[in-house]
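Exercise 7.
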Amino acid sequence: MAHSNTIDQIAERVDHLLLRHEELQKTNVLLAQQVQTLSNERDQLKSRLAAARARVDALIERLPTTAPTSPEVSS
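Solution. The predicted structure, written as tokens, is:
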């Protein structure tokens, strides 16, 4: 009888481990999807940042190169 009880405990433990394994696999799939979504979002943000930098650089190029003269101080 003790032998049967031990086998039942092992079988129960194996069932529990199989369920846990399945849960972890599902969680892993969800996390992989989140990583993909966040990677796509990051790539879009990097692209937008590069475009904004290009616009700022273009605006800087249009600025006059000579510094305005400061008014002379009268004595």
